Amino acid sequence: MPIQSYLVYPRKDKKQKLLSHLRKLSGCETMESTNEEIIILLTDTSSDFEEGQLQENLKAIPHLEGMALVYAQEG
């Protein structure tokens, strides 16, 4: 099971909307940064196929400016 963590950068003034959208996705856990306009995202999926679907869902979020992969582990 792929486990990954990201720094997620919202579009200007869209952090709360992005957080709301991310929290609705299965396999995602979020945490807000207290000193930056970023979100910490942890994903845990049961297969590479499910991970691919999650990535496609993330790409479709209009409030997301970019993501930086911080950690990845194949379970």
Q: How many beta-strand segments?
A: 4
Strand content: 35-45%
Radius of gyration: 12 Å
Low-pLDDT parts are none
Form type: globular
Helix content: 25-40%
Major pleated sheet: 4 strands, antiparallel
What's the number of helices? 2
In words, what does this structure look like?
With 75 residues, the chain is an alpha+beta fold. The chain contains 2 helices and 4 strands; from the N terminus they run βαββαβ. Strands 2-3-1-4 form a 4-stranded antiparallel beta sheet, with helices on one face. Strand 2 and strand 3 form a beta hairpin. The termini are close together. The mean pLDDT is 92.
Helices, strands, pairings?
Elements: E1 2-10, H1 15-23, E2 28-32, E3 39-44, H2 48-59, E4 64-74
Throw out a few tags for this protein:
28% helix, 41% strand
In short:
This protein is 28% helix and 41% strand. The protein has helices at residues 15-23, 48-59; strands spanning 2-10, 28-32, 39-44, 64-74.
